[in-house]
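WARN retry 2 of 3 for item q-0093 after timeout on previous attempt; input resubmitted unchanged.
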Amino acid sequence: MYLFDTNVLSEILKRTPSPLLVARLAGVPPEQQFTTAITVGEMVYGAHRSDRPAHFLRQLEERVWPNVNVLPFGRSAAVAYGQLRARLERNGTPLAEPDLRIAAIALAHDFTLVTGNIRHFARVPGLRVEDWMQPGL
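OK item q-0093 returned
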C-alpha cells in the first residue's frame, strides 16, 4: 500500500508531470493508492493561494480526489505522532508539523510513503520511503 505525499499529488497537476511518476502510478491498483487528510488540506490551501484557485480546485475534484483514498488522522496515527514527535525532538531532528502527521499516518497503517523528499523523511525511524519521480530511487 502506498501513501502519497503532497508533492507527489501536486506533480500530477503539472502541465508535464514526471513520466516516471505517471508510469509508476499506472502500475499500482487504485485500491492501493492513498493520501492523507493532511495532504488534502495542504493542496486546497495551495489552490487558494494560487492565481487561479477555481481552476486548481476543479482539477483536484476531477483528477485527484476520485483516484486516491483519503486517510484521516485517527487515534492510531495520533499515538504514532506523539511517539514520533517526542523521539525526533529528543534526537534534535524535528520534522515540520504537517510532515510529521503524514509520516505518523503512514506508520500507523504500515504504508510506504511516496514523496519527492526522501532526505526529509529519512529521519523517521521505521518509515519506508520511495521517490517515484527520480530514476533508480
